[in-house]
Prior knowledge:
The protein is of the alpha+beta class. It has one helix at residues 2-20; strands spanning 47-50, 53-56, 61-64, 67-70, 78-79, 82-86, 91-95, 98-99. It contains 1 helix and 8 strands.
Amino acid sequence: MKWLVVGASVFLVGIGSAVAQPPPPPTYAPIPPPRVEVVPPPPEGRVVWEPGHWHWDGFRYVWVPGHYVERRPNYGHYVEGRWVWAPREGRWIWRPAHWE
């Protein structure tokens, strides 16, 4: 009977500690190198070329082609989208292009 109590205690402690563990970070394939794009002549107006980039769709990386982005009034500096390491998440995340 004593062994049954000890065994049940060990089992319950094991379950409790397993639940308390955070899940492992998801594994992603390495980010492919950027593709070479031919930049077409800009259309009329104030535009900036946003280069293409790889996007993780949940299963694989898909290429998002580059395109022109209209520069809006009162926007100063254009920051291209880029992959950045998120140490808290333990993975790379895509930071989209934006105006500062």
